[in-house]
Amino acid sequence: MIQRFKRALLILCLTGTALFAATENRGISIPYVAFPMKEGKGMYSTKGKCNMCHSWGYTINQGPQSKKFWHEKVIKMITVFHAPIKPEDIDEVVEYLYENYGNGKEE
C-alpha cells in the first residue's frame, strides 16, 4: 500500500512540475526556408503529389539523378509511404523530376 502511494506521489510530482515550467518568450523563431521548384511541364502536379508528405527540399537534396533513380524513388514513395500518386500519373512525375533534376542518364 505504501509502495503504491509513493509511486503515485512520484508520478504526480513529475507530471505536476511540467505545469509550472517557465514559458517566457525568449525571442526564438524558426525561419521559413523556401525551396523553389524549377518551372516545367508537370510541375504543379508533381508539387501537389510530393509536397503532401514532405518539403520540396527533400527532393532537391537527392541531387541530379538518372531517370531510373527517379522512377524507383517515385515507386518507393507509392509502395512504402503510400504517396497519393495514381498509376497513370507516375510517368508525368518521373519526367518532371528527370527533366528538371536529372543528370542526363537513363540508368
TrEMBL record:
SUPFAM superfamilies reported in the protein's UniProt record: Cytochrome c (SSF46626)
GO MF annotation: an example: heme binding
Key word Signal present: yes
Superkingdom field: Bacteria
Keyword set, alphabetical order: Signal
Annotated signal sequence range: 1-21
InterPro entries, sorted: Cyt_c-like_dom_sf (IPR036909)
Record protein name field: Sulfite:cytochrome C oxidoreductase subunit B
Organism: Sulfurovum indicum
Lineage: Bacteria, Pseudomonadati, Campylobacterota, Epsilonproteobacteria, Campylobacterales
